[in-house]
Amino acid sequence: MSAIIDFDQNILRSEKKYITRSRCYAFELLNFLGAREQHTQRSVASIYFDTLAFNSFFDGEEGSVPRKKYRYRVYNEELPTEKKTKQISGVFEKKETFATGRSKLKWRRALSDINDLTAEARETFQNKQLFPTIYIQYERRYFRLSNVDITVDFNMNACKVTSDYRFLNRFFDDRSVIEVKQNLRENIECPVERKIPLLSARFSKYCEFSKRLLICRT
After folding, report:
1. Alpha-carbon radius of gyration of the chain
2. Shortest CA distance to 182 belongs to which of 65, 12, 30?
3. Taking a C-beta distance cutoff of 8 angstroms, is the pair 73, 8 a contact?
């Protein structure tokens, strides 16, 4: 069984992503620009849910709007991949993308067994057709510059998740992702994007790793 701990209101924001093969470059660049680290480094682990037709994946690949993404996320611990009775405390998230920006709804839930995830996800997201697809884990550092939040994700790895929560075919990705996040309700210009000497890229961890693990795998 699960318990609702709290509920976060959604915030409309823009997100710009920049990809580099060197995490050291990402940290040195932000240090050069004068960004300040805001929190201690955290490990982020998520299980993503999709329909049997992979609607979320294909909507993301095609850039369709509006589109939705569903996941269960924990911080500073790995989701259990063997001992399934481990107590876990995480957050169900529904991330929506519109033409004008993105929003995120969060429901915090503690679970006594990872096998409860599918039923809890379907109830939380009011969708009876969602199934677990991919597990993604990475390290994240948090920065702030000119009143804009910036994160750097690195040491990314992922594996396929079966319907009975077996974790298969893990692989590692050496890229790092710099993400600039701005609250659109503040209605101010974002000066950070002009200072980053990289081209912004459309990059979704879920879509990138789905192509490798699910969609294109024979």
Report:
1. 17
2. 12
3. no
CA distances from 162 to 102, 153, 191 (A): 29, 25, 43
CB atoms within 10 A of CB 150: 26
For residue 61 the two structure tokens come to 């690949």
Using a cut of 0.70, tell me whether the model's pTM lies above it.
yes
Q: What's the CATH number where 160 sits?
A: 3.20.100.30
One-letter amino acid identity for 172?
F
- Residues counted in the chain: 218
Distance CA 205, CA 218 (A): 20
Q: What is the domain count for the chain? A: 1
Mean pLDDT of the residues in the chain: 86
Query: Which residues are CB-contacts of 211 (< 8 A; sequence separation ≥ 6)?
Result: none
pLDDT at 189 over 80: no
Nearest partner of 15 among 207, 208, 204, judged by Cα: 204
Query: Which parts of 112-146 are beta strand (E)?
Result: 131-145
Q: Structure tokens of 92?
A: 């169900």
Statement: residue 5 has pLDDT above 70:
no
Q: How far out from the chain centre does Cα 191 lie?
A: 24
Rounded Cα–Cα distance for residues 40 and 36 (Å): 12
| Element holding 102 (H helix, E strand) | strand 102-111
Here the tokens at position 85 are: 């009775």
Q: Which domain holds residue 65?
A: 2-215
Q: Which two tokens stand for residue 123?
A: 């109830």
Copy the structure tokens of residue 31. 């240090």
Cis, bond preceding 80 (omega within 30 deg of 0): no
